[in-house]
Specification:
With 359 residues, the chain is an alpha/beta fold. It is 41% helix and 13% strand. It has a five-stranded parallel beta sheet. It has a four-stranded parallel beta sheet with strand order 10-8-12-13. Helix 4 links the parallel strand 4 and strand 5. Helix 10 crosses helix 15. The two termini are 18 Å apart.
Length: 359
């Protein structure tokens, strides 16, 4: 089946990049060096970071008790070597969903909420820092619950509140996102705040090496020769598709890989569309966006379900990508949520859609 062939090609190229020394930001074994780099450098303080509105938060020392809103910020802290500072999280990663040794560390973190952390539990957690991945993401995060702590309540509880701007600020961007600079900035900021700047530099450098290799291979491809690409968020529901627009991180990942986001004409991060909109786009490639189930077997089953749905649904079975088997099996998280693995996804997509150049 061509969808599996494409995925295999992606894996081969990714392995080649890692072997060539481009994996400094994405190797799963990097968690060990992250642990070694985790000691804070007090000479680097004070450190200030800004939120989506430009409001500034200053740290005179590294935080000691951190709560993360979801697995994205948790994974970044683990990779930075600051995992020992995390005392709780919301939207916890399922067992087996994080790579290598990171998974064992993540499973030791106390779960404060299976989804959004309840307000009272967050304020009473004893944290001195809350890292928020969601902010302005409407119903997908704290701002959409109607019961998020106010700035005054955070202050009264002694909790500083900062954001992953690459995702939290997505809807507020004035222009489409076409690179990973916001993700790199988040990694750099978290490194500065937690005293792990040296490790942050390593992670960013590794990401840049991978993306640079892809851009060298496919960056000169004319716009008209770039295939159209649809991120099918299977887990968001099939009745009415949720599409990734040009302010969403996936738009950058797709663009850097030498493809064209089928919904790049949509200003914002996400929006609900109709299947008639997808049919009108008739994308060359479709990514089966499935969230990690925690094991290879469970992931395969989920990808199989998504593929079968596209092939059996009257509205989608006639799509070019479906008929030609151009269906990529790449997880949702590493495509749409900020992290080191965004660069790996750029490599994987490029290898599949440009086999003659990137493969």
């Amino acid at each position: 089946m061509r969808s599996r062939v494409g995925s295999s090609a992606a894996a081969v190229v990714l392995a080649g990049l890692l072997a060539a020394g481009c994996g400094g930001g994405g190797k799963d074994t990097g968690s060990q060096s992250a642990q070694k780099a985790g000691s804070s450098d007090q000479d680097a303080y004070p450190v200030s970071v800004t939120d989506c509105t430009g409001a500034r938060t200053t740290f005179s020392a590294a935080p000691k008790k951190i709560v993360t809103s979801n697995a994205s910020s948790l994974e970044l802290l683990l990779r930075l070597g600051a995992g020992d500072k995390v005392i709780g999280t919301g939207f916890p990663p399922g067992k087996g969903t994080l790579p290598g040794p990171l998974d064992a560390q993540a499973q030791q973190v106390r779960v404060l909420g299976r989804t959004v952390i309840p307000k009272e539990k967050l304020l009473g957690s004893g944290a001195d820092l809350y890292i928020d991945t969601f902010a302005s993401m409407g119903s997908m995060g704290g701002g959409g619950t109607g019961d998020a702590p106010t700035p005054e309540e955070f202050k009264a509880a002694g909790i500083r509140h900062i954001y992953l701007k690459s995702t939290a600020c997505a809807a507020q961007r004035k222009a489409p996102v076409t690179d990973l600079s916001a993700v790199e900035a988040d990694i750099t900021s978290l490194g500065a705040v937690t005293g792990t700047s040296a490790r942050a530099k390593e992670l960013v450098a590794g990401m840049r090496e991978k993306v640079a290799a892809v851009r060298k291979a496919v960056g000169g491809t004319a716009e008209s020769e770039r295939p159209t690409y649809f991120f099918f968020d299977y887990d968001a529901g099939t009745k009415q598709p949720v599409v990734t627009c040009n302010r969403q991180l996936a738009n950058a990942v797709i663009s850097l890989a030498g493809a064209r986001n089928a919904f790049a004409d949509c200003d914002g991060d996400y929006r609900q569309a109709g299947w008639e909109d997808v049919i009108a786009k008739d994308p060359d490639w479709i990514q089966l966006g499935v969230r990690d189930r925690g094991s290879e077997a469970a992931n395969k089953e989920a990808f199989d379900e998504a593929e079968q749905w596209l092939k059996s649904n009257p509205a989608t079975k006639g799509l070019k990508a479906v008929k030609e088997g151009r269906l990529l099996r790449i997880g949702s998280e590493q495509t749409t949520i900020a992290g080191v693995r965004n660069a790996d996804t750029v490599v994987a997509i490029a290898a599949a859609v440009h086999p003659g150049k990137a493969g």
